[in-house]
Amino acid sequence: MLNILQFNANHCENAQDLALHVITTESLDVLLLSEPYCVPRNNGNWVTDESKTVAIVVNGNRLPIQRIRHRQTLGVVAADVGGTTIVSCYVSPQTGVPEFRSIMEKIDLIVRGCSRVLLAGDFNAMHLDWGSSRTCPKGLELLQLADNLGLVLLNKADCLPTFKGNRADTNRFPPSRPDVTFASSVISRLDPRDDSARGWRVPDVATLSDHRYVQYEVGESSPPTRDRAARRGQRPARVSKAGTRWKTSQFDSQLFGKALAMTGFARQVNSVESLVESLTSVCDETMSRVFPTQDHTGRPAYWWTPAIQAMIDNLSRKEQMTMRTIPPEEQLQTELLAARESLRKAIRLSKNEAFDRFLRSIREDVTGIFFRKVFHWFQGARSAPERDPAELRRIVDALFPVHPPVEWPDLGVGNMAPLRSIGLTELDQIAASMHPRKAPGLDGVPNAALTVALRQQPEPFRRVFQECLDMSCFPQPWKKQRLVLLPKPGKSPGEPSSFRPICLLDNTGKALERLLLNRLNEYIEDPESPQLSEQQFGFRRGRSTLQAIQQVVDAGRRALSLGRTNNRDRRCLMVVALDVRNAFNTASWQSIAEALQAKGVPVQLCRILQDYFADRELEYDTADGPVTRRVSAGVTQGSILGPTLWNIMYDGVLAVELPEGASIVGFADDLAILAAGTIPEHAAAIAEEAVAAVNNWMVQHKLSLAPEKTELLMISSKRSGYRNIPVNICGVEVRSKRSIRYLGVMLHDHLSWRPHVEMVADKALRVVRALRGIMRNHSGPQVSKRKLLAAVAASIIRYGAPVWTEATDLQWCRRILDRVQRLLAQGITSAFHSTSCEVAVVLAGELPYHLLAKEDARCYNRQQSSPDSSREAIRQEEKETSLQLWQQQWDDVAANNTSRYLRWAHRQVPDVRLWTGRKHGEVDFYLSQVLSGHAFVHEFLHVFGFAPSPDCPRCAGSVESVAHVMFECPRFADVRAEFLQGVGEHNLGSRLLESAEWWDRIQQAARRILSVLQEDWREEQQTLAAAEAAQPDPASSLPEDMAEAERRLLRRREVRNRSAQRRRQQQRQQRLGDFELVPAVLARAAANEAAEPTGEVEEEEVSPPVPPIPPRSRRLPPSPRTTEMRRRRRNYMQLQYRRRRRDGELGDVPQGRQRRGRIPTSAAELER
């Protein structure tokens, strides 16, 4: 059964917040929202139409959206939730009958053939059947649609109107029932006594909108234990889930180690079963088990408080009292408006207080959890996992296909070398490599507990693991895997390809897999005789995506280096980025077995792997309990052996015989075919032949290409490039593009890195704008934590930097990178928005992005040339080089820049090495003002139009700058005497770096001085605003001559517009040939021509007074006075221009394009 809430928010933020709060606290499943205030980004619980006027919102604690059926029609969205097709609609009252009929026809096409349909929304259609005062044509159309689809009406005519109406004008906007609900008979839950829907109701509660809630249930009745226990305050019923879980927050390493010794762990373990039982008993002794429950009740909204609930109840009573009196009394109406406004203010204040508490928790956190808190805050709501058995079976069957049984080759011949024994040192290395927060498998033993056991009691593990190697077997308990389906962001829900299947394995079994992998790599990755292709760069030590990308880029550069074609040079390179459909889950075990034998893997290891693939099982949770399924193909995503086994099997495609001029590059399952040709058609033909050869290999090994995800790029030296070159991919024609994305890097047809830099900059900007919300001037995390959060944006920018670092030498690239880093550096230091990028980056102590990219490139090149060198030593040396380049750049900018603020910042921070290497002090809101010069001082405020004069109001003839208020102004002499003894303009920066004590003293002085100046500026702004409000309207007191001049200007504009209209008509007539205008048009043109003012008006001009230049204001919107002054100044300048033009003072001014370029007319142009 689905619990539905239907509501029209009328674009009100608080009304939408209340509705979301209701569906969470009252355990409702779906919210059908019309006219939402806003739609969150990347939230899998929301589905909207393209115009975002209607939405289907599911409760993330209960049900997911199974499938999106339709969202293209404006005002209509359809999706499957809980096995029911829900269609939510919003039709504007201004929609005509023909358009309404068209919408009904589209809905008919959407739901035709569906057996369980819910059609609901705000249709703005009237009919007597659902309680309207009359029947309109749109109501007839809606009822006819319902009859055609076999839907029944759920509305009750005796319920309250769903639209409250406008109480101030009940004649034009009376209460009505525009919200209508239809459902299929199988889910309608009709009452057989009166043939009406059970549970369809309109609660009379406050909604902060002009619509009421509509609440009802559809579908079969739910089990009585589903939510009743939670509502009655009882303990929710337990549900059956696969595997065991413990509360890892209770884990204590010392306690766990003592429990191992006290239970006799070493004596009890003599087999795999006893090992698992012993670990389970020790975990039970030290941690509590977690039992999943069927509790679907959600927490209230983060802004909810008991006081807000009391205000909601009070508003509901006020609305009920107002409804009883028609027309409402003025006092009741006033009280209702006051209660509504107070509720809105309370919700807004509660949101701000909640965010302030969040910022305080980040600032006070000392454990490092703040990083997860921040990204959890901005991540938004999570989608509920799919639990419907039929849907899960459909998805799992598509993701894990069934392959025929494997016939392993004869293992009696081959490499009979024994496997080396397991040592305690190897087990210790495995324990050190375990991540403590990795999710466990079905046994539930966490990695932290297994790490302690391996380090304190390694001998039992060694005996069990060595016995597995000697017997050439892989234990059956460790072959079971628990499936978790992770939805891919931005993908359509319900499709199997929209999920990323992750299989959770027992951590003890993964330790055994690590031992097998170490022995497998001894033969596969032997430096003297490597068994894998050099063109495979994925899942291999010492190889990365950068090498694969660099190989593609090098091939493109070779093609670009060739000049004009001579029918011999291959100056055109076709890059084909192939995608394999569901690659890892469809890998053939038969192909893996044959590849292992072909590569000479020892027979003993092959036998273990043969047993590793035998009788593997997959478990996943459903609403009816865990389901077990046999697995017959694929390499487990989440296993240790899986990536290497994939490389062994996939190595065959890299050895496929390709046509001349073609090569292949692989990274895991991603393939890039490089086809070089003399002309684009030649390169396309080679690429098509190479793709056909690869596809043949895929078919033989039960893999398939995805043509819809294949991308093509033609790299050539032709300036305009080659686009839309067709290539046949598995019977589908795919055309080349100007740029494609390969392994996270945008490749351009001329290897221009602008598309890639713009892509990563936009991605980083989204992160920066989200982080700037918590980087407030007077609150939020410390500077050190802000830098750690800023590293997220830097990591996005730096991806693939060794490949595209050459672009950082160009100005456009630096401008794009500076745009991102400037916002981030201003947020780190709480500096003004006007602070330049160079100053903000220096104050933040963050290396400029273009220098950071070059540093990454130098480190990468050195590591490739000398792999045995220490990465830390190389990074430290290159960091010194980057600091030298940064210092040189900082000195050059200060020497060549005319900004006094930048020169002031350079005088205070002359050495970036000392500044970034200090061990004390953080730059806050006040200290950044002192060091940058952008502060609440009249010098700065006057430059940006916030102050009438740069002079100090207390010191006549002195400019109020940062240096003046800090070291000269007598107004702050007591502050200087207390904190700034021995500090001057010449040694401010050196004092800051001298010690933490001096830093704190200067910081305290800056806070006391600048806070006073900030308060003074606010008072000045309030005084000016009050003075402007008290002045009369400037437009009403215009001089008479100025008004007459403006009237003449308007008449001239009218003459000019009419002349331009006649000219366009003549040009149109010339283009159409012999065409006679309609007599009425000719008569109107003649009348307009007769009514035109003559040139005598221009002779009567009287020079108006020169209007003053309006003040500049960049950060605040212009006042009405400033707007009027700007208009008068603009009109005056136009009049002056026309006068000078008429008197011949301007000379000959070229027209059109030549006027912009100031180029004299050529002789050829005059002749034409």
TrEMBL record:
It comes from Anopheles gambiae (African malaria mosquito). Residues 467-747 form the Reverse transcriptase domain. Residues 218-244, 1023-1042, 1052-1072, 1086-1168 are annotated as: Disordered. Keywords: Nucleotidyltransferase, RNA-directed DNA polymerase, Transferase. Pfam families: Exo_endo_phos_2 (PF14529), RVT_1 (PF00078). Residues 1052-1066, 1126-1141 have a biased composition (Basic residues). InterPro entries: Endo/exonu/phosph_ase_sf, Endo/exonuclease/phosphatase, RT_dom. This is Reverse transcriptase. GO terms for molecular function: RNA-directed DNA polymerase activity.
